[in-house]
Amino acid sequence: MRNIKDTQNFLHSKELVRHLIGICNIKLDDVVIEIGPGKGIITNELAHKARKVVAIEFDEELYEKLKNKFQSNNKVDINYICLFNYLFISSQMSAKPYFIGSTGILLLW
User: Fold this and answer.
1) End-to-end Cα distance, the chain
2) Where would you tag: which of 32, 33, 34, 104 has the fewest CB atoms within 10 A of its CB?
């Protein structure tokens, strides 16, 4: 199995994040599931657009950093779990490059 550290890529451009979220047509009453929030750049922008962001991180170190970063934001729920063991993902929206293959739920990864 691949080391997850070897597959991580992080967005740095807030402008690109805003553009990607803008084309997803997220509404203020939406709940968004974000798989692999990384350092939280997308999470932060999603929290301004959606009712709730459920972020699922499978890197324990990033999870701890995210919990601290968003501890006072009641619109963001950070979870530590490896979804690959539990969930078949039928589609995704992803910033390239990405690790998992793509295939109808809005998932930001």
Assistant:
1) 20
2) 104
